[in-house]
Amino acid sequence: MSALRKLIPRQEFALLELSAKFFRGLGDPTRLKILGILLDGEMSVSDLVRRLGIQQGRVSNHLACLKWCGYVTTGSKGRYTLYRIGDRRVKRILQLSREMVAKNAEHLWACARISEPQRPRARMGKY
Question: CB 3.0–4.6 Å: which of 47, 72, 93, 94 could bond 66 by disulfide?
């Protein structure tokens, strides 16, 4: 349990947790790239797969996360589902992050407190 949770009102802590979750939704390079692409206009999963060069399942999972968090929405065009930016403020959030990264890039690269999440390793040996 977080020490902070014990020190501040429950509603305030809940809002902080929700805000942290909001930023974790943006905390993946692939999701940021997808959002950048969608700033140029709506696209289908197939279009994004071609642009990104990664598996359809991974693109779909990232889109599901982005949709659930409200960064993207969907619409239909014939038999295709098209993804688009769901809130015009997403563009500004991305612009602000780029500006801050540009200003603080050296410190961000050197930061030992925030690291990449550990990915599960493949099992070795017999199954």
Answer: 72
